[in-house]
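If your schedule permits, I should be very grateful for your opinion on a structural question. Kindly check, if you would, that the fold set down in the tokens agrees with what the sequence suggests. Thank you for your consideration; the sequence and its tokens are set out here:
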Amino acid sequence: IIEARWLFGIEPDRIDVVIHPKSIIHSMVEFRDGSIKAQLGKPDMRVPISHALAYPERWAFDFGGMDLTSPVNLELLPVDSERFPGLGLARMALEKGGTAPAVFNAADEIAVGWFLEGKIGFTEIPRIVGKALKERPVRPCTDLKDILQEDAETREWLGRL
């Protein structure tokens, strides 16, 4: 939701999240007339990431296409906030504004790194992100310099925990 907010200029209260267990649907946009456009692809984040980086252009990559002759399940589920606490933390970061999304991102990257190194359990990731969001001061964010400064300071702060 943080990416959608800033990449596409959408207000947070207009962003909804659903779970697609097969990870074929990477994003959807509902228009005023009720029609929906979806970005579908193999469960491979390289494609949607390349779309975000190249927007509005599309880079030419051969990530392999989908076999549309095979059955495709497009089941969508509501988000279980207890199972996916990171979503609520992302919303909290957007509500706080300023440098809070940079705190969220830095804390998430550090916590995921600690998990991958075996230093913490998977369920500790949102606890660490939440602690950073609650304890780090929120400052105004006017440019990339503010974001990079908060990123560095949050990483340093987490290193002292």
In short: The chain is about 45% helix and 10% strand. The two ends are 28 Å apart (CA to CA). The chain has a mean pLDDT of 92. Strands lie at 18-19, 25-30, 36-40, 77-78.
